[in-house]
Write a structure and sequence with these properties.
Layout: H1 2-32, E1 46-51, H2 58-73, E2 76-80, H3 91-101, E3 105-108, H4 114-125, E4 130-133, E5 144-147, H5 150-164, E6 169-177, H6 183-199, E7 205-213, H7 218-231, E8 238-241, H8 244-256, E9 264-268, H9 272-279, E10 285-289, H10 291-308, E11 314-316, E12 319-322, H11 327-338
Parallel strand pairs: 1-2, 1-3, 3-4, 4-5, 5-11, 6-7, 6-8, 8-9, 9-10
Antiparallel strand pairs: 10-12
Helix pairs in contact: 2-10, 3-4, 5-6, 7-8, 9-11
Length: 339
């Protein structure tokens, strides 16, 4: 019996020694690692969420980068919803999830549907402020709209069109997406149509038409513009595209139907494809919304609302032009963002 007890004691002592050696090795390994200083981790007062309009959009990524910087400076965490999971969620689906999660603020581009409008109202009623971006839904209870105004757009289009028209005038077509029903763009198109009649040179004959595309999905936008190129002859002298996708589709159609040089495209925002088109002088100009302004104003609206209980109902942002003269600057910017 004593022999058995001695054996057990020896085994226990051996186990203790082994465990001590393993623990000592483990502690030394931890000390050699460059671990982050958890004591310096930031605590945020609020959690905001940005619902992007399109997956991997250069525009929305740029807006997020400026907004997240402003959020950090105001003790807020801004989350960009990841749409690359393979699960197809609508804007309405995201809104339901965020309302149930009780986030502190939502930033989104509304789609004009009654469903999204009602969910925006529901969010605000549950003390979740909603900021609309680039497109507005003034019939909703959103606390603020951040984007361009119709007068700003109309004046810019007017200046560009007048610089592109020849002495006899020409045909101008404005491409609009009937699905999105963007009131800012629709009003800008109307104001532009009225203004150009007053501003055109004597002797110029200018005709303006609106072309509504039936759908907003990438593929359907492309098909809609292809139908335009097939059925509309001759093509208008100037095509005004009011978003990034329409600009890319119109540019590709110019190439596919051998119409380069037959019409000038006034684009909106930019991608590598649009920048290349400007560099090749196929597209003379594209409009660029100041994404830094957009992101900063979105967070400012939410911060002011949480602090004061109210905020400005409208934040106007800057607008710039990309032409052959400055396109290289934007190529450099996209390269930096890719690295």
């Amino acid at each position: 019996m004593k022999k058995t007890s001695l054996t057990i004691t020896i085994i226990l002592i051996f186990c203790v020694l082994v465990l001590s050696i393993v623990w000592s090795y483990f502690r030394n390994s931890l000390d050699s690692l460059d671990l982050p200083d958890t004591s310096a981790s930031e605590a945020y007062d609020r959690h905001y969420v940005l619902i992007p309009d399109e997956e991997n959009s250069v525009l929305w990524q740029a807006i997020y980068e400026s907004a997240v910087q402003e959020a950090n400076e105001n003790s807020a965490y801004l989350e960009l919803l990841d749409q690359s999971s393979g699960i197809s969620y609508t804007t309405a689906d995201y809104l339901r999830i965020l309302i149930a999660s009780q986030v502190d603020g939502i930033i989104l581009k509304p789609d004009g549907t009654d469903e999204v409008r009602e969910l925006i109202d529901k969010a605000v009623e549950k003390d979740i402020p909603v900021v609309t971006v680039l497109e507005d839904d003034s019939d909703s209870q959103r606390i603020s709209y951040v984007g361009l105004n119709s007068y700003q757009l109309a004046d810019t289009y007017l200046e560009l069109v007048l610089s592109l028209l020849d002495q006899d005038g020409g045909e101008i077509m404005i491409l609009l997406d009937s699905e999105s029903v963007n009131p800012i763009q629709t009003l800008a198109a109307s104001q532009f149509t009225g203004s150009i009649e007053q501003q055109k040179d004597s002797g110029q004959e200018v005709n303006v038409s609106l072309y509504y595309l039936e759908n907003s999905a990438d593929f359907d936008s492309e098909e809609g513009i292809r139908e335009l190129f097939v059925n509309y002859s001759p093509l208008p002298d100037i095509l005004i595209c009011m978003d990034e996708i329409l600009t890319e589709c119109a540019y590709q159609a110019l190439i596919d139907y051998n119409e380069v040089g037959s019409t000038d495209i006034i684009g909106f925002y930019y991608s590598d494809q649009i920048l290349e088109a400007i560099e090749k002088e196929i597209i003379p100009v594209t409009l660029v919304v100041d994404t830094s302004d957009v992101g900063t104003c979105c967070i400012d609206a939410l911060t002011e609302y949480h602090t004061l209980g109210h905020t400005s109902s409208y934040y106007s942002v800057g607008l710039s032009l990309i032409t052959e003269e400055n396109v290289a600057d934007y190529f450099s910017e996209t390269e930096e963002n890719a690295t």
